[in-house]
Amino acid sequence: MTRGAETKQKTAQRFVGRVTLVIVFFALFASSLVARAVHLQVLDKDFLNQQADSRHLRTESISAHRGTILDRNGEPLAISTPVDSIWVNPKEFASAVDKIPQLAEVLELKPDTLMRRITSSMDKEFLYLSRHLNPSAAQKVMAMKLPGINVQREYRRYYPASEVTGHLVGFTNVDDQGQEGLELAMNYWLEGEPGAKRVLKDRLGRSIENVESIRPPHHGKDLRASIDLRLQYVAYRTLKSAVKSYNARSGSVVVLDIKTGEVLAMVNQPTYNPNDRSQYVAERYRNRAITDIFEPGSSIKPLIVTAALESGQFRPSSVVDTSPGFITVGAKKISDNHNLGRISLTTILARSSNVGVTKVAMDLQPDQLWATMTQFGLGEMTASGFPGESAGMLTHYSNWRPISQATIAYGYGVSVTPLQLAQAYAVIGSGGIKRPISLFAIDEAVGGERMFSKTSADAVLRMLEEVVRPGGTGTKASVDGFRIAGKTGTAWKFAKGGYSEDKYISIFAGLAPASNPRLVTVVVIDEPSGELYYGSDVAAPVFADVMSESLRLLAIAPDAMPARDPGSVMQAMADRNARK
C-alpha cells in the first residue's frame, strides 16, 4: 500500500470514528432528554404540578357588600357601591421602580411619597396603594401592566340623604365596618361574609383564569329603619332654619308614633355629611337627641301632675292656692311671674306655675314621685339600642332633700334626653301605656305595658290642650284644624358655680291630634341668642311647623275643623244641585 493510500485510509477511519462519536453523543443526549421527560412527566408529575400551582395559583377574596338601610317606605338611606382598591407586591414591583412617576400620576399621589411607601415595604408581599378608586381609574392603572400591581374589588358606603339622616344612620370606616349610628348598632346584621376563589395568575401577577370557587360570598341583610324620610326632611329643614334664626348653639327634634313607639324623625343641628370623611368629628356626628342630656324645665310638669292624680290625693278639679305668688323651701324662694291665687291643676300647666306645681309635688311622698318618674322612663335608657344612648339622671328618692323634691317639680335636678322626654309624653298620649322605642320599622305594634290609669293620662292630656289655647303659654304651637296638647319649657343652663342667667334651653313637647293622639314631637333648642329665648317663643313655632307638615304627609284627619253655619251648608247643597 502506497503512502497516499494509507493516509486516505487513516483519514476515513478518523472520520468514521468522529461520526460514530457524534452519533453516540446525540443518542445519549436524546436518551437523557427522554429519561428526563419521563421523570418529569411521570415520576415527578405531582411535585411539579404542586410547584407550578404554588407559583401561579392564588386564593383571592370575593368581597361581600353590606345590606342596604332603607326608610320605612323603602327609600334608600345607605347603599354600597362597587369600588376598586389598588395593591402591590413590593418584591415583584422592584424591577419596575422607574415607572413610579407614571403610576403616581394615575393614582394622583406624589411620586416621592409613593416611592417611600413601596421601597420601605420590600419585605412585604401586600401593600395598599390606593383604596376605593372609581373602577374606571383602576382600569387605567391595570392597563399599565406593571409587575406586582393588582386590583381588588371592594364596596364603599354611600348615603343618599347625606346630612339629613347622618346622625341616625351613622357611617362605616374604610374597611366597611360600622362606626356610628345604625351602621354600628346593626353591624352584625348589615355586614356580609366574604367569599373565596382560586385563580391562575401570569408572571405579572394578573389573574388570567378563575380555577374554582372555594366559598361563595354572603351579602349583608337589608335593614328597614323606622324613620319616614319625608318627615325627616321636614324636621331637618325646620330645625336648621330655627337654629340659624336664633343663632343657637344646637338643636334637636324627635317625632314618635305613639301607637307603635317608632321614631319617625330624629334630627340634630349642627349636622355632618357622612359621605365626607373630613367631617367625622365627634362634636358634629354624635346624635344629640339620644346622647345629650338637659334639665327639662317646665316641660316636666305634666309628669308631676300625673303623679298627683295617681296618688289619689288630687283630682282634675283640685285647686291649689299659689298666693302670695311665691313659696320658700329651705333657703330657696320659688316664685311665679304673677300671683295667680287659687288655681286648678289645669291652670298650673296652662300658666306654667312653679309655685303651684311645687306645692303639688311637696304634698306627695318622695317614693311616689320617684316611682312615677321612673315609670315614665326617666333615669333609664329607652332600649332603642342606639350606641352611646344616655340614661339621663334621676337620683334615688332616698338621696333627696326637701329642696330636691321642690326643684324637680319644675324641671331642675333631673336630666333627660330629647328621646326620653318624647317617650314620656307618648305614655300620656297612649292613655298610660308605655311602649318600647324602636328605630326599626314595626309591622305589628307591641302591646306595651300599662304604667298609669287611662283616667289619669286622659285628664292630663285634656289639661295640656289648655296650654296651647289662648291664655296658655304655648299658643304658638297651635296647628290649624287640629287639637294640640303640649307643654313649653325654658331652663337655665348649669354653669360653673351655679346656673347661668344668660344661657337657656328652650323646649316644647306636644301631641296631636289630641282627640286620639298619633304623634308626639319634642323640640329642644340649646342656647338661643337674642331677645327671644323662652320655649313658647323659640321651640313652640318649630313644633307647629313640624307637626303641621307631618300630620299632612301622614294623611291624619283633622279633629278641630271650624263649625259651619247650617244655613251656609244648606245653601252650598242648593248651589250644587242647581249646577247638576
Task: Note the topology.
Elements lengths: L2 H41 L1 H12 E6 L6 E2 L5 E13 L1 H4 L6 H8 L3 H9 L7 E7 L1 H8 L6 E10 L7 H4 L11 H5 L1 H4 L4 E7 L5 E9 L7 E2 L4 H17 L4 E8 L5 E7 L12 H4 L2 H4 L9 H11 L7 E3 L4 E4 L2 E4 L6 E3 H6 L3 H9 L3 H10 L26 H8 L8 H12 L3 E2 L14 E2 L3 H15 L16 E11 L2 E15 L6 E8 L12 H15 L12 H14 L1
Parallel strand pairs: 2-8
Antiparallel strand pairs: 1-6, 2-3, 3-4, 3-5, 6-7, 9-10, 9-19, 11-14, 12-13, 15-16, 17-18, 18-19
Helix pairs in contact: 4-5, 10-20, 13-16, 13-19, 15-17
Q: In angstroms, what separates the terminal alpha carbons?
A: 149 Å
Strand content: 15-25%
CATH fold group of the largest domain: Beta-lactamase
Mean pLDDT: 87
Structural class: alpha+beta
Helix content: 25-40%
The CATH homologous superfamily of the largest domain is termed DD-peptidase/beta-lactamase superfamily
Could you say how many structural domains there are in total?
2
The total strand number stands at 19
- Rg, rounded, reads 38 Å
Q: Point out poorly predicted stretches.
A: none
**Largest sheet, if any?**
5 strands, mixed
CATH architecture of the largest domain: 3-Layer(aba) Sandwich
What's the tally of helices? 21
Broad shape: elongated
